Model the fold of this input.
Amino acid sequence: MVSETTGLVPQDLHIHTTFSSDDGAVVPEQTVELVDRYRYAERMGISDHMEYVLGEQFDCYRRTLESHNFYVGTEVSGWSWVREALGLDANYYVYHCRDRAEDYRGAELLLSSGKPVIVAHPNALGTDLARVDPQCLIEINNRYVWRDDSWRELSGYRDRFRFVVGSDAHQPHWLNQTIARRVMAELGLTEALLFPVNLPAEDAVSL
Ligand SMILES: [Zn+2]
Ligand SMILES: [Zn+2]
Done:
């Protein structure tokens, strides 16, 4: 679970910061700077809710993340946001796919960008994975995966999908993936690593 070389987990692409300004779970201390200070994954991306980083704000969002050497993601809440999402200069999408035909279509449309599309916390949204395009990645989400037993069903999809682990951190003490990684190990799934390591230069020397 943790690299012997770096002491870090391999990847976390689902992290929120104060850019998600109206998300009541985000605390004021959860700044991009704080997440950078407490890096715990070899590959890290920030994925604030798209509705809070739209328009002119997106450029500031992207530049801030890049200045801290984070990949630029955004969390897209279903079909109605997909067309606008396709116009954003993001590296990847974290996607809310509820159990309705237009949301499954939305995932396919996002895939047409050629960028990774991570289906977020399917158990929290009632996503029917049998209807999700197999090019999507399925997230094992540390915030939600323990809330029911449906994670056991993921083993039936091991040949259909690739999987990633996400913290969905909204607060500094959520910056970990302890339960999600245990679930991943119990299921015997391998994590898909989507990007090169992006540790800051001084930390990467020991790699
Ligand atoms: Zn979400
Ligand atoms: Zn989220």
